[in-house]
Write a structure and sequence with these properties.
The protein is α+β, with helices and mostly antiparallel strands and 147 residues long. Helices cover 14% and strands 34% of the residues. It has 2 helices and 12 strands. It has helices at residues 22-29, 90-101; strands at 4-8, 12-13, 33-36, 46-49, 54-59, 64-71, 77-80, 113-116, 121-124, 131-132, 135-136, 140-144. The chain has a 7-stranded antiparallel beta sheet, covered by helices on one side. A 3-stranded mixed beta sheet has the order 2-1-7, with no helix packed on it. Strand 10 and strand 11 form a beta hairpin.
Length: 147
Amino acid sequence: MKPTFDIQPLIGCDQIKLHASRDTLLSVLNQPYKAIKKYPEREQASDALFRNDLHISYKGQPALVESIEFAYSELYDVTLLGEAILSLPAKSALATLESVTGKTAITSDGGYTYEIPALGLWLWRESNDNFDENGFYFFTIGIRVVA
């Protein structure tokens, strides 16, 4: 049975907490991982898990979880407060995001990324090609530490 990760704004998700230590996180997930240079400007590498579908980025020493990004995957399910957001067409996903958080997502890149900065949440899609008769879909959802 594949795991479900339920994102909780300002917290992380049920199994991965923002601010958790890298060692604790990798022990809890108990999954193969590889270090990647997701952010070349950072000294700290990110970890890729579930065949590179889940990325976890860190900050500080010791390394603490700063952000978590889930791609749509057949290896796990991801929800936002119980709602399967990546399975919804973009318009429905944005309406659901607003419904469960009480906040409206904003975009500054023409609709590829929508964010709620106060909650550290974002949805992203890579192109205008990922659509069907229901419209466009987001490819990833992420949560980060809010400064």
